[in-house]
Amino acid sequence: MMYNEKGDYMKICVLGAGAYGSALSIILSENGNDVTMWTRFEEEANRINSDHTCPKLPGVTLPSDIYATSSLKEATDGAAFILIAIPTAFVSETLKDAKEYIKDKPIVIASKGIEQDSCLFVSDIVEKILDTDNVAAFSGPSFAIDVANKVPVGLTLACKHRETIDLVTEAFCNNHFKLRVCSDIIGTEICGAIKNVIAIAAGILDGMGMPESTSAMFITESVHDIKALIKGLGGNGDTILSFAGFGDLLLTATSPKSRNYSFGHLIGSGASKSEIDEYIASTTIEGLYTLKSVHQLMETYNVDMPIVNLIEGIIYGDKKPEDLVSFLIEKP
User: Fold this and answer.
1) Closest CA to 35 of 47, 23, 19, 53
2) 259 closest CA partner among 288, 235, 294
3) CA 95 from centre of chain
4) Which long-range contacts (CB under 8 A, 24 or more apart) does 55-58 make?
5) Is residue 129 part of a domain?
6) Nearest Cα to Cα of residue 214 among 329, 128, 62
7) In the chain, N or C terminus with fewer CB closer than 10 Å?
């Protein structure tokens, strides 16, 4: 283990100073860990160190003992493990820059999504660049603002290394932050990525004025399709019943706090093309990027996911939101 200068607790490096990285840093600090956050932007690091705030977490003050830096070497030096909490699109570049500093350290993935073009999950990117299988991924129903406000949350921790499991649970778990362990990393990552696609369709239904009964029907059908994708890619179908699976799907597909859900709501409510384009330009909608990658994975692994095909048709093709309702009734 690595300890801080007091010789008491672990030093942990958090790659990413956005909402989720900051929220997780709060939990780590609360548990007595020595937390160093890394950001590519020096001005952002300076703001964290002076103001102890994250603009994407309004009303939240970061613990004063959290330190931020734009130096990968400084952030990773002496860390017990590296927590990745940056957008998936930037993981490859960041790991290549940090490779010489983080070799042999356990890697814990909090980022969700699939890399464009390559269709790699974050664990695949880590293993490819760092040549290690000492990787863990956690995912579950946990909006950053809720984590930061220390409300009870439960997540799935997927890992195959007992020592790393013990390290991560020791660092994170307390009376309001729960981790339930499994070994299905790919299944956990699939759930964390595809729930954003499903949330778009759930928002469409709500925007059309469909009641909760129809939404529940849709979410249930989605569970079956996600399970098929998990099994098709070599994961454990039971992972759909975990915090990472049904838990995260339920949260993201029912809450206006979800950007993906809100995007779908615009479509379903009949918003103009200019309104939709403006929302896309001003908001990160993970489900849009994931949709293309999931479709490629479906073709590569010969997995049938009718719901994903329909969502793609509504957004990019000639399908209409109303087709989603008839589809639910006609789907075998």
Assistant:
1) 23
2) 288
3) 18
4) 56/18, 56/19, 56/22, 56/144, 57/19, 57/22, 57/23, 57/144, 57/145, 57/148, 58/145
5) yes
6) 329
7) C
How would you list the strands of the sheet with 177-182, edge to edge?
Answer: 67-69, 34-38, 11-15, 81-84, 107-109, 135-139, 153-159, 177-182
- Residue (of 111, 138, 143) closest to 125 by Cα position: 111
User: Is residue 3 in some structural domain?
Assistant: no
- Report pLDDT digits (tens) over 113-168: 999 889 999 999 999 999 999 999 999 999 999 999 999 999 999 999 999 999 99
156 part of a folded domain: yes
Radius of gyration of the chain (CA): 20
Count of structural domains within the chain: 2
Catalytic residue among 11, 105, 112, 195: 195
Q: pTM of whole model > 0.85?
A: yes
User: Known catalytic residue: 195?
Assistant: yes
CB 26 within 8 A of CB 177: no
